[in-house]
Amino acid sequence: MFHARSPAALLLAWIAAAVLAVPAWAQHANHQVDFSDTQKWSRVFDNPLRDEWQKPVQVIRALRLKPTSRVADIGSGTGYFAIRIARMVPQGRVFGVDTEPAMVKFLAERGKREGLANLTSIEGAPEDPKLPGAVDVMLMVDVYHHIGDRVGYLRAVRRYLEPRGRLAIIDHVDTPGSVLKDERTAPRRIKAELKRAGYELAAEHSFLPEQYFLIFKPAAR
Ligand SMILES: C[S@@+](CC[C@H](N)C(=O)[O-])C[C@H]1O[C@@H](n2cnc3c(N)ncnc32)[C@H](O)[C@@H]1O
To answer: β-strands 93-98, 70-74: how paired?
Structure first.
């Protein structure tokens, strides 16, 4: 799963993948994953080798945030993106939303430890992120395939998006080399679902080797 470039990095990546990633990602296939062991998941999600293929700096740049932006990281997990984004929007606000209470606690403690007063950790419901207000950007990384009624969910979260807001979805591509071989993640299907839920495609980025990266905006009513 890791796209390392040098031979040493490749070896490290292979070991990390064998020890950590394979059992973890393999469970994703059935979408019924237990995320309560935060220490275990932190070793997977926050593994420094992830930066090689996840390219967080480029992803965050593509979100075109302002220092005052309000951002919701839906399915924030251990905070891989929420923490980085909170540093980028010092006068803004980041809401890390997760349905797993242990993850919510983990992120709240991590934000506090890292002195990020602009980061709020929220326990969302499977059908409602329970945000306290509207946001400029909503980000979903590797969470879309965990959601049951996706069109219903997307319709529901529209009320939390500012009129000029953006919804960014990153998930694994369905290719022979992919860690997640599942038709549910095929970009054409995601685009069709978003259209049905009342969004239109605003941008599509292709710089992530393992994942698609789509940005949507609310369609004119
Ligand atoms: C594979 S992890 C991804 C974590 C993080 N986005 C990252 O990239 O490191 C998926 C996370 O989404 C959460 N999740 C699943 N369904 C959710 C939903 N309907 N709303 C919010 N979070 C959800 C899980 O508890 C888990 O922490």
So the answer is: parallel
C-alpha of residue 163 to centroid of ligand 1, in Å: 25
pLDDT tens figures, 97-127: 999 999 999 999 999 999 999 999 999 999 9
CATH number of the domain residue 58 falls in: 3.40.50.150
Ligand 1 atom closest to 148 (CA): 19
**Number of domains comprising the chain:** 1
Main-chain dihedrals φ then ψ at residue 99, nearest 5 degrees: -90, -15
Interval between CA 59 and ligand 1 midpoint (Å): 18
Q: Whose CA is nearest to atom 23 of ligand 1?
A: 75
- For residue 13, name the pLDDT band (cuts at 50, 70, 90): very low
Residue 100: both structure tokens together: 């797993």
The predicted structure's pLDDT at residue 28: 42
- Residue 77 CB–ligand 1 contact under 6 Å: yes
- How many Cβ atoms sit within 10 Å of the Cβ of residue 117? 10
